[in-house]
Amino acid sequence: MIRGIHHTAISTPDLDRALAFYRDLLGLRVVADFAWPVGTEVADRITGLHESSARAVMLQAGNAFVELFQYQTPAPRPGDPRRPVADHGITHLCFDVTELDAEYERLRAAGMTFHCPPQDLGGVRSTYGRDPDGNVIELQEVCEPGHPIALPLP
């Protein structure tokens, strides 16, 4: 039985830079920081890689987690930091926010690039931006209580 989404995982060429974005700028909380050396058979089995080694950090954002990986081996291929969201694969990571305009201005002032200012979608406001590796980050504010996509309150 699937209970819900636990985490999204992102591979980055620079874990410290990604942490500065997700932990320091967006405010996610580090809950685990771990690594594995070459020869860790269980990691190779799970990832489907051979002779892998990496460091990973799990961060918490409210009801979900974001896991960041920096692989040392095998040598990763670089991603396209400007990959259009229409290309196949994960298109974006969405954060539920309050006061969208203030968050947009705060992040833009800190250097985050955005596709556009916040847009009104009828009961929901949203904008897309990019993390330092070019992954698309959505900031979304549900403005109407009881809207079908509103997160349940604890």
Query: How would you state the average pLDDT, rounded?
Result: 90
Bulk shape: globular
Please describe the biggest sheet, giving its number of strands, its sense, and whether it closes into a barrel: 5 strands, mixed
> Would you count the extended β strands for me?
9
Distance between the termini: 22 Å
Unreliable runs, pLDDT <50, ≥5 residues? none
Q: What is the helix fraction of residues, given as a range?
A: 10-25%
Name the CATH superfamily classification of the largest domain: 2,3-Dihydroxybiphenyl 1,2-Dioxygenase, domain 1
Q: For the record, what CATH class of the largest domain applies?
A: Alpha Beta
Query: Please, how many helices?
Result: 3
Overall tally of domains: 2
Beta-strand portion reads 35-45%
Notes on the structure:
With 154 residues, the chain is an alpha+beta fold. It has 2 domains: 74 residues, 2,3-Dihydroxybiphenyl 1,2-Dioxygenase, domain 1 (Roll); 67 residues, 2,3-Dihydroxybiphenyl 1,2-Dioxygenase, domain 1 (Roll), CATH 3.10.180. Strands 5, 6, 7, 8 and 9 form a 5-stranded mixed beta sheet that branches. Strands 1-4-3-2 form a 4-stranded mixed beta sheet, covered by helices on one side. Strand 8 and strand 9 form a beta hairpin. The longest helix has 11 residues. The two termini are 22 Å apart. The relative contact order is 0.18.
